[in-house]
Amino acid sequence: MTTDESRYEAVRSRDARFDGVFFLGVRTTGIYCRPSCPAVTPKRENVRFYPTAAAAQGAGFRACRRCRPDAVPGSAEWNVRADLVGRAMRMISDGVVDREGVAGLAARLGYSPRQVQRQLTAELGAGPVALARAQRAHTARVLLQTTGLPVTEIAFAAGFASVRQFNDTVREVYARTPSALRAASVRGGHGPAGRPAARAGTARDDTARDGGPVSGVTLRLAYRGDYAAGQVFGFLERRAVPGVEEVRGQPGGRTYRRTLDLPYGTGVAEVDESPARGGGWLACRLRLGDLRDLTTAVQRIRRLFDLDADPFAVTEHLSRYEALAPLPARTPGLRSPGTADAHELAVRAVLGQQVTVGAARTLTGRLVQAYGKPLAAPSGALTHLFPEPGALAEAPLGELGIPESRRRTLRTVATALADGTVVLDPGADRDATERALLALPGIGPWTAGYMRMRALGDPDVFLPGDVGVRHGLALAGADPTQADRWRPWRSYALHHLWHATTQAGADGPSQRAPRAA
């Protein structure tokens, strides 16, 4: 979408592929919408286009009550881009501005606050404060419509500095008071908020005072296009670490569950595989020790399930190549799963060197039992948080039964994560992080690439030395020298090859790698 005319054509055709890619403001009504809004298409002269919801709000438009533009998937562009704007957007989504302010965001990016403000405003039509504010408004709406929490508590849980700021923002964005927004959701059947049972405490168990998850929030996690839920849940199930993750049910009706270590507390997330009625979203339930973690928890689950991907662009590109073309047709909507905890993924990548998926899962389970922090109260098969890097930096690791060279590598990576030598933040510079990883003894291209793909969410990683990839290439009749043509979606090509291997009857991608240098 490079011109306003082409954007308007997408609006006229109600093309959902561009939901989240841009927003339109309608001058005659004062509202802003997603491109696929079912309302009558406004005249071209009455439409203005904006790259973000925050920019539309800053121009004085309020969110459409019919299409809910604040609930669209995030733009896949921010995952592709490695520049300042892309990195900043990933960090803002993770709640960095809410926790550390613009100064903290700028420090993480390595720029001055003025430079960050200027570049974001020039390209996105809104600065970091406005972008974070739009995200807080969405979080507030979710809490108002899905929980029975008091409005005052929701204000601070959503990240607002005061109740007055919260009230003013909700009125400005949604043209309703918080109470009216909640009441409308009850009338429309969108959630339990305001019902007597919710007010009585079914959404919150205030008896839990020991730091365990206490607040429950039910969410719809939107995605665009097709979604290969079977591929994603199968990928996660084969790698589910005992104590930290579990998958319940049978294919087609599975529920993925895991513990979360968040900035303000702990949590448990559940995501259902079953297709949602009407499609376009996955059902998710979050139980959080502190509701201030809601935005961060949602973004981490979205990254884990790769919900902001653009399957249209991926399929269009990969289908151009004869060897790969059958794979997107066979598995439409395939995703490249990320991670809910980048430090956890780094440790798991080291444990996965030169072993099968099943062996890596067993080793990681032993690590969790020996060094993970137990939950105050188990939740089903979930018993621990994954060990923090600091806890592993000096650990003997004898319980794992692996060679000393591998234990030394694990301690080296844990130390680098703990002291900041290696940064795996959502907005980390991917090239710099990969160089820092490769400088560590025991870390080779496979391990660094795997971390870059899953921990940093890079959509353009290829692992030619992986046994599963080599098997998939052979099945597809492709050659690793062709991989450069698959940019910038090589991570998806890699997952297609892994998935083809799985479908061929192998025990998933072997996750073996050449010995790290």
UniProtKB/TrEMBL annotation:
UniProt-recorded Gene Ontology molecular function terms: alkylated DNA binding; DNA-3-methyladenine glycosylase activity; DNA-7-methylguanine glycosylase activity; DNA-binding transcription factor activity; methyltransferase activity; sequence-specific DNA binding; zinc ion binding
Cofactor requirement: Zn(2+)
HTH araC/xylS-type domain ranges (all copies): 86-184
Gene Ontology terms describing biological process: base-excision repair, AP site formation; DNA alkylation repair; methylation
Top EC class, one word: hydrolase
Catalytic activity: Hydrolysis of alkylated DNA, releasing 3-methyladenine, 3-methylguanine, 7-methylguanine and 7-methyladenine
InterPro entries: Ada-like_dom_sf, Ada_DNA_repair_Zn-bd, AlkA_N, AlkA_N_sf, Alkylbase_DNA_Glycosylase/TA, DNA_glycosylase, HhH-GPD_domain, HhH_base_excis_C
Pfam family, one: HTH_18
Gene3D superfamilies, A to Z: DNA Methylphosphotriester Repair Domain, DNA-3-methyladenine glycosylase AlkA, N-terminal domain, Helix-hairpin-Helix base-excision DNA repair enzymes (C-terminal), Homeodomain-like, Hypothetical protein, domain 2
Keywords: Activator, DNA damage, DNA repair, DNA-binding, Metal-binding, Methyltransferase, Transcription, Transcription regulation, Transferase, Zinc
Region: Disordered, residue numbers: 184-211
GO cellular component terms, semicolon-separated: cytoplasm; protein-DNA complex
SMART domains: AlkA_N, ENDO3c, HTH_ARAC
Known EC number: 3.2.2.21
Entry-linked PROSITE patterns: HTH_ARAC_FAMILY_1, HTH_ARAC_FAMILY_2
Protein name: DNA-3-methyladenine glycosylase II
Species name: Streptomyces diacarni
